[in-house]
Design a protein that fits this description.
Low-confidence stretches of chain B: none
Helix content of chain B: under 10%
Structural class of chain B: mainly beta
Largest sheet of chain B: 7 strands, mixed
Number of strands of chain A: 11
Structural class of chain A: mainly beta
Radius of gyration of chain B: 13 Å
Helix content of chain A: under 10%
Shape of chain A: globular
Strand content of chain A: over 45%
Number of helices of chain B: 0
Order of helices and strands of chain B: EEEEEEEEEEE
Number of helices of chain A: 0
Shape of chain B: globular
Largest interface: A-B, 21 and 23 residues
Oligomer: heterodimer
Distance between the termini of chain B: 37 Å
Mean pLDDT of chain A: 92
Chain lengths: ~110, ~120
Protein backbone atom coordinates (compact mmCIF):
# COMPACT_ATOMS: atom_id res chain seq x y z
CA UNK A 1 0.00 0.00 0.00
CA UNK A 2 1.31 3.43 -0.93
CA UNK A 3 1.95 5.56 2.12
CA UNK A 4 3.50 8.93 2.95
CA UNK A 5 4.60 9.66 6.50
CA UNK A 6 5.57 13.12 7.67
CA UNK A 7 7.34 14.29 10.77
CA UNK A 8 7.10 16.09 13.01
CA UNK A 9 3.32 16.43 13.20
CA UNK A 10 3.73 19.98 14.46
CA UNK A 11 6.59 22.36 15.05
CA UNK A 12 6.98 25.72 16.77
CA UNK A 13 10.02 27.89 16.04
CA UNK A 14 11.08 31.48 16.54
CA UNK A 15 11.16 33.92 13.69
CA UNK A 16 14.52 33.91 11.92
CA UNK A 17 15.36 30.33 12.81
CA UNK A 18 15.77 27.47 10.34
CA UNK A 19 13.82 24.22 10.39
CA UNK A 20 13.62 20.94 8.52
CA UNK A 21 10.53 18.86 7.84
CA UNK A 22 10.72 15.18 6.95
CA UNK A 23 8.81 12.96 4.56
CA UNK A 24 9.17 9.18 4.15
CA UNK A 25 7.25 7.31 1.49
CA UNK A 26 6.58 3.82 0.21
CA UNK A 27 4.98 4.82 -3.09
CA UNK A 28 6.17 2.62 -5.92
CA UNK A 29 7.05 2.90 -8.73
CA UNK A 30 8.05 6.45 -7.92
CA UNK A 31 7.23 9.29 -10.29
CA UNK A 32 7.55 12.56 -8.43
CA UNK A 33 7.39 14.16 -5.01
CA UNK A 34 5.90 17.54 -4.27
CA UNK A 35 5.87 19.78 -1.23
CA UNK A 36 2.85 22.01 -0.75
CA UNK A 37 2.22 24.88 1.63
CA UNK A 38 -1.32 25.29 2.89
CA UNK A 39 -2.23 28.45 4.74
CA UNK A 40 -5.18 28.20 7.11
CA UNK A 41 -8.43 28.38 5.16
CA UNK A 42 -6.69 28.28 1.77
CA UNK A 43 -5.96 25.65 -0.84
CA UNK A 44 -2.50 24.01 -1.04
CA UNK A 45 0.09 25.82 -3.11
CA UNK A 46 3.01 24.00 -4.70
CA UNK A 47 6.50 24.81 -3.40
CA UNK A 48 8.64 22.25 -5.21
CA UNK A 49 8.30 19.19 -7.41
CA UNK A 50 11.09 16.66 -7.84
CA UNK A 51 11.50 13.65 -10.05
CA UNK A 52 13.65 10.58 -9.53
CA UNK A 53 16.84 12.15 -10.88
CA UNK A 54 16.69 15.32 -8.80
CA UNK A 55 18.37 15.52 -5.39
CA UNK A 56 17.78 19.13 -4.47
CA UNK A 57 15.43 21.88 -5.54
CA UNK A 58 15.09 25.35 -4.14
CA UNK A 59 12.30 27.91 -4.18
CA UNK A 60 13.46 31.03 -2.38
CA UNK A 61 13.98 30.17 1.29
CA UNK A 62 12.57 26.68 0.74
CA UNK A 63 14.94 23.86 -0.21
CA UNK A 64 13.70 20.34 -0.79
CA UNK A 65 15.92 17.28 -0.95
CA UNK A 66 15.14 13.83 -2.24
CA UNK A 67 16.88 10.50 -1.63
CA UNK A 68 15.12 8.05 -3.91
CA UNK A 69 17.18 5.14 -2.57
CA UNK A 70 16.00 5.55 1.01
CA UNK A 71 12.64 7.01 -0.10
CA UNK A 72 13.07 10.10 2.00
CA UNK A 73 12.60 13.79 1.38
CA UNK A 74 13.11 16.88 3.49
CA UNK A 75 11.97 20.47 3.26
CA UNK A 76 14.36 23.01 4.78
CA UNK A 77 13.11 26.49 5.56
CA UNK A 78 15.78 29.13 6.04
CA UNK A 79 15.41 32.29 8.10
CA UNK A 80 11.78 31.63 8.91
CA UNK A 81 9.20 34.39 8.74
CA UNK A 82 5.83 34.76 10.41
CA UNK A 83 4.20 34.13 7.04
CA UNK A 84 5.75 30.66 6.96
CA UNK A 85 3.20 29.57 9.57
CA UNK A 86 1.17 26.99 7.67
CA UNK A 87 0.73 23.29 7.07
CA UNK A 88 3.34 21.68 4.81
CA UNK A 89 2.17 18.63 2.91
CA UNK A 90 4.32 16.04 1.16
CA UNK A 91 2.64 14.45 -1.86
CA UNK A 92 4.05 11.50 -3.81
CA UNK A 93 2.86 10.20 -7.16
CA UNK A 94 3.45 6.81 -8.74
CA UNK A 95 4.32 6.30 -12.38
CA UNK A 96 2.37 4.11 -14.75
CA UNK A 97 -0.32 6.47 -15.93
CA UNK A 98 -2.22 7.15 -12.71
CA UNK A 99 -2.23 10.76 -11.61
CA UNK A 100 -3.78 10.03 -8.24
CA UNK A 101 -1.15 11.01 -5.67
CA UNK A 102 -0.67 9.92 -2.07
CA UNK A 103 -0.83 12.68 0.52
CA UNK A 104 0.98 12.91 3.83
CA UNK A 105 -0.87 14.21 6.88
CA UNK A 106 1.21 17.38 6.84
CA UNK A 107 3.40 19.19 9.35
CA UNK A 108 1.87 22.17 11.07
CA UNK A 109 4.49 24.89 11.44
CA UNK A 110 4.02 27.88 13.74
CA UNK A 111 6.54 30.70 13.62
CA UNK A 112 6.53 32.94 16.69
CA UNK A 113 7.90 36.50 16.73
CA UNK B 1 -0.05 26.96 -14.54
CA UNK B 2 -3.78 26.52 -14.03
CA UNK B 3 -5.98 28.76 -11.94
CA UNK B 4 -8.89 27.05 -10.23
CA UNK B 5 -11.91 28.95 -8.93
CA UNK B 6 -14.32 27.41 -6.49
CA UNK B 7 -17.62 28.67 -5.20
CA UNK B 8 -19.04 29.04 -2.74
CA UNK B 9 -15.95 29.70 -0.65
CA UNK B 10 -17.94 28.92 2.48
CA UNK B 11 -21.48 28.12 3.48
CA UNK B 12 -23.53 27.20 6.52
CA UNK B 13 -26.24 24.67 5.81
CA UNK B 14 -29.02 22.92 7.63
CA UNK B 15 -29.06 19.21 8.25
CA UNK B 16 -30.83 17.27 5.50
CA UNK B 17 -30.23 19.80 2.73
CA UNK B 18 -27.87 19.55 -0.22
CA UNK B 19 -25.18 21.90 -1.49
CA UNK B 20 -23.50 22.04 -4.88
CA UNK B 21 -19.92 23.29 -5.15
CA UNK B 22 -18.67 24.56 -8.50
CA UNK B 23 -15.12 24.32 -9.82
CA UNK B 24 -13.89 26.27 -12.84
CA UNK B 25 -10.41 25.88 -14.36
CA UNK B 26 -8.98 28.60 -16.58
CA UNK B 27 -7.63 26.05 -19.07
CA UNK B 28 -8.55 22.63 -20.37
CA UNK B 29 -7.25 19.91 -18.09
CA UNK B 30 -7.12 16.17 -18.43
CA UNK B 31 -8.06 15.24 -14.92
CA UNK B 32 -10.07 16.87 -12.15
CA UNK B 33 -10.42 15.62 -8.61
CA UNK B 34 -12.49 16.35 -5.53
CA UNK B 35 -10.93 16.14 -2.08
CA UNK B 36 -12.24 16.49 1.44
CA UNK B 37 -10.15 17.91 4.24
CA UNK B 38 -11.50 17.54 7.75
CA UNK B 39 -10.18 19.78 10.53
CA UNK B 40 -6.54 19.11 11.31
CA UNK B 41 -6.33 16.36 8.72
CA UNK B 42 -4.73 15.99 5.32
CA UNK B 43 -6.62 15.64 2.08
CA UNK B 44 -8.77 12.60 1.32
CA UNK B 45 -9.68 11.89 -2.29
CA UNK B 46 -13.42 11.63 -2.83
CA UNK B 47 -13.47 10.92 -6.54
CA UNK B 48 -11.98 11.58 -9.94
CA UNK B 49 -14.33 13.63 -12.11
CA UNK B 50 -14.42 12.10 -15.59
CA UNK B 51 -15.43 14.26 -18.51
CA UNK B 52 -18.63 12.99 -20.08
CA UNK B 53 -18.98 9.92 -17.89
CA UNK B 54 -19.62 8.88 -14.30
CA UNK B 55 -17.03 9.85 -11.71
CA UNK B 56 -14.70 7.26 -10.20
CA UNK B 57 -15.25 7.12 -6.44
CA UNK B 58 -12.77 6.11 -3.78
CA UNK B 59 -13.57 3.63 -1.07
CA UNK B 60 -16.00 5.08 1.44
CA UNK B 61 -17.57 7.56 -0.96
CA UNK B 62 -20.69 6.87 -3.06
CA UNK B 63 -22.44 8.62 -5.90
CA UNK B 64 -25.74 8.99 -4.07
CA UNK B 65 -24.04 11.03 -1.35
CA UNK B 66 -21.55 12.92 -3.53
CA UNK B 67 -22.89 13.21 -7.07
CA UNK B 68 -20.32 14.76 -9.41
CA UNK B 69 -20.69 16.25 -12.84
CA UNK B 70 -18.04 17.16 -15.41
CA UNK B 71 -19.68 18.35 -18.59
CA UNK B 72 -16.45 19.61 -20.20
CA UNK B 73 -12.68 19.88 -19.71
CA UNK B 74 -12.80 23.03 -17.58
CA UNK B 75 -15.77 22.64 -15.22
CA UNK B 76 -17.00 20.26 -12.53
CA UNK B 77 -19.48 20.25 -9.69
CA UNK B 78 -19.65 18.29 -6.45
CA UNK B 79 -22.93 17.98 -4.57
CA UNK B 80 -23.01 17.03 -0.91
CA UNK B 81 -26.43 15.45 -0.45
CA UNK B 82 -28.62 15.05 2.61
CA UNK B 83 -26.01 16.74 4.76
CA UNK B 84 -25.27 15.93 8.37
CA UNK B 85 -22.85 17.63 10.79
CA UNK B 86 -20.27 14.96 9.93
CA UNK B 87 -20.09 16.47 6.44
CA UNK B 88 -18.69 19.70 7.86
CA UNK B 89 -15.35 19.98 6.13
CA UNK B 90 -13.34 21.78 3.47
CA UNK B 91 -13.96 20.48 -0.02
CA UNK B 92 -11.18 21.07 -2.53
CA UNK B 93 -11.19 20.84 -6.29
CA UNK B 94 -7.92 20.01 -8.03
CA UNK B 95 -6.73 19.48 -11.56
CA UNK B 96 -3.71 18.17 -13.39
CA UNK B 97 -2.54 18.22 -16.96
CA UNK B 98 0.37 16.37 -18.54
CA UNK B 99 1.31 19.41 -20.56
CA UNK B 100 1.73 21.29 -17.28
CA UNK B 101 4.34 18.81 -16.10
CA UNK B 102 1.93 16.76 -14.07
CA UNK B 103 1.60 19.55 -11.53
CA UNK B 104 -1.43 19.24 -9.29
CA UNK B 105 -3.27 22.53 -8.83
CA UNK B 106 -5.85 23.28 -6.16
CA UNK B 107 -8.74 25.62 -5.73
CA UNK B 108 -9.07 27.68 -2.58
CA UNK B 109 -11.55 25.25 -1.12
CA UNK B 110 -15.16 25.45 0.01
CA UNK B 111 -15.63 25.44 3.77
CA UNK B 112 -18.91 23.76 4.63
CA UNK B 113 -20.54 23.89 8.06
CA UNK B 114 -23.63 21.78 8.69
CA UNK B 115 -25.78 22.65 11.67
Amino acid sequence: KNQVEQSPQSLIILEGKNCTLQCNYTVSPFSNLRWYKQDTGRGPVSLTIMTFSENTKSNGRYTATLDADTKQSSLHITASQLSDSASYICVVSASGGSYIPTFGRGTSLIVHP
Amino acid sequence: SAVISQKPSRDICQRGTSLTIQCQVDSQVTMMFWYRQQPGQSLTLIATANQGSEATYESGFVIDKFPISRPNLTFSTLTVSNMSPEDSSIYLCSATERELGGELFFGEGSRLTVL
